[in-house]
Amino acid sequence: MPRLLPALLDTPDRPALRFGDRALTHGRLAAVAAPLAARISGSSRVAVWATPTLETAVGVVAALLAGVAAVPLNPKSGDSELGHIVADSAPEAVLAAADAELPPALARLPRIDVDADAAVPDVVPSLPPEPADPATPAFVVYTSGTTGPPKGAVLPRRAVSSTLDALRDAWRWTEADTLVHGLPLFHVHGLILGVIGPLRRGGAVRHLGRFSTEGVTRELSSGATMLFGVPTMYHRIAESLPTDPALAKALGSARLLVSGSAALPVHDHERITSATGQRVIERYGMTETLMNTSVRADGEPRPGTVGVPLPGVELRLTEDDGVTEVPSDDPEGVGEIQVRGPNLFLHYLNRPDATEAAFAPGGWFRTGDMAVRDADGYVRIIGRKATDLIKSGGYKIGAGEIENALLEHPGVREAAVTGAPDDDLGERVVAWIVPADAAHPPTEAELADHVAARLSPHKRPRTVRYLEALPRNDMGKILKRALGDA
């Protein structure tokens, strides 16, 4: 199997990583990662204390060079969750920056300090051979665990390479690109796409440490060409643009703005485009599948969609039975997204029952996401099957389109939509609103009329709940299960 990161040797003088005022070229990254790779060689798995630092990137690269599966750990996780992940994955060591303070849950693991500034020769004449089998595990990434303890998705090297190469095609991603982002490094988005992606291309990544519009302006104004973010970040950008001409100019100079991990509201799409002339493109993926679809750089950036299947990815929509396909020429046909291809995970670690339940006959992975498909193949996700598909009065209603409609109301700052049991309708639409002005929130009747006028009467909220803020996870996704009963 070809190397995952050929630029480490092929273009050693190119910039590779920058975190604050610390940076490494591809060659220097190889030089500091190689001794670490040799030290962990022969291990099955190693944990990586995934702080937003140069050391995290070096530790992960060392694991990839050694053919050892990396288990990224969220530094914000509590002891109970960390204890579960460590017991489940059984890593043989934990890699961490020398100054990192590790929690008690990791106390029994041998610790290996990562030194990105190590005094080693800058020239690496060779690197150890990488595994020949493309099914060799590269990462074990733990899911959010909304229905139980987190499950470890075992991602093979072929999933990493196939996804990143498909994005090269879709996004015209080359060694000339420099990516900027402030995403956490314990997740697929920030780590695999946001760090390993640029390194595989032979380009560079500048990590902000912590997201800020000032950081985005600085980096895009000084040579960065791409920005990755989640909707909460782009919402902050949209809010800042009217009073920040430097930010608008910087975004206008970017080659590509990409949003993921959750749906970006159409209202924010429109505000960013109006102020910068740029359109944000969206893509769709999961921990278990890496990336499935994307709006292409040379395609139509259609707000509200996640584009078309990536090269090598098969996608279908199925009825409730999980087998019958929704006709591809039915733009109103709602179905569960199922995918298959080289981008899929191997299995859930130590969970054969969960792995079996995750797949339909024929090797199709059940994503649990509901969508409709435009006539030209663009996919529009309407939400999670468990929390965002509302069956009301005989209709299948997607929460996402109602949320977008609510966000168009000037009195709404944030919105989430769920379903609640209803004796008459089966389920009723419930809107959870963060008002723009808490002292004068829009009324329930006003919001119902607003949605009915934009969509249709059966999609209007029957109940409205007002909040100071919506519960979100580290990636900006709204935690609908935390909203409670209406």
UniProtKB/TrEMBL annotation:
PROSITE patterns in the record, alphabetically? AMP_BINDING (PS00455)
Which InterPro entries does the UniProt entry name for this protein?
A: AMP-bd_C (IPR025110), AMP-bd_C_sf (IPR045851), AMP-binding_CS (IPR020845), AMP-dep_synth/lig_dom (IPR000873), ANL_N_sf (IPR042099)
AMP-dependent synthetase/ligase domain: from which residue to which, for each copy?
A: 11-349
* Name this polypeptide is given: Acyl-CoA synthetase
GO MF entry, a single one: medium-chain fatty acid-CoA ligase activity
Pfam families linked to this entry: AMP-binding, AMP-binding_C
UniProt similarity note: Belongs to the ATP-dependent AMP-binding enzyme family.
Q: Which organism is it from?
A: Streptomyces tabacisoli
What are the AMP-binding enzyme C-terminal domain coordinates in residue numbering? 401-477
Q: Which GO terms describe its biological process?
A: fatty acid metabolic process
Q: Which domain of life is it from?
A: Bacteria
